[in-house]
Amino acid sequence: MADQDFNMQPLPNGADTAPAVGLISQYIKDLSFENPNAPAIYQNQNAPTVDVQFNIGGAQVGDEVHEVVLKIEVRAENEGQVAFIVDLSYAGLFGFRNVPADQIQPYLLGEGPRLIFPFARRVLADAVRDGGFPPLLLEPIDFNTLYLQSQESQGQQGVAGQA
C-alpha cells in the first residue's frame, strides 16, 4: 500500500484526502571507518572505551518528500590510543500527503529516526566487525521522547530569555 500512496495517483473512494506518510527509500549517505593504530591496537586485549554521539537532521527535498539524516559518530579508545572511529550518515526519504505542516517536523525528528535506526545500527555493527573488532551493538533509542525533551528544553530556554 505504501507504493500506492506515493505514486501521486488519486486513490479510490476519495481516500486521497486522508493524511499519509510512507518511507520511500533508505540509504547510506556517508560512511567512514578509521583504524589509525592498526596493527598495534589488536595486541591490547582490554575492552575499549566507546563514545557514541547522535545528530538528526531533516529537510524537504521535493514536493511532499523529506529526507531524515541520522548521523552517528563513534570513537573507541583503549589506554589512550584510538582503537577506531566510525562516522555514519544514514538517511531515509519520507513521503507526506495531506499532513499538516506543524506535524512534519515532529515526525522527521522523532518517528523517522526510529524507523531507520535499526538499519543504521546494523551498518555500524558490520563496519566495526569488518574493521577487526567485535560488532558494536547500540541499544535501541526512543527518538520520540528525545524530540519531546528537546522541545521542552527549548521552550524553557525561550521563557527564561523573555524574563
UniProtKB/TrEMBL annotation:
SUPFAM superfamilies: SecB-like (SSF54611). The keyword Nucleotidyltransferase does not apply. The keyword Iron does not apply. Keywords: Chaperone, Cytoplasm, Protein transport, Translocation, Transport. One of its GO terms (molecular function) is unfolded protein binding. One of its GO terms (biological process) is protein folding. It is found in: Cytoplasm. GO terms for cellular component: cytoplasm. Its main location: cytoplasm. InterPro entries: SecB (IPR003708), SecB-like_sf (IPR035958). Coiled coil: none annotated. Belongs to the SecB family. One of the proteins required for the normal export of preproteins out of the cell cytoplasm. It is a molecular chaperone that binds to a subset of precursor proteins, maintaining them in a translocation-competent state. It also specifically binds to its receptor SecA. Homotetramer, a dimer of dimers. One homotetramer interacts with 1 SecA dimer. PANTHER family: PROTEIN-EXPORT PROTEIN SECB, PTHR36918. This is Protein-export protein SecB. It comes from Sphingomonas aerophila.
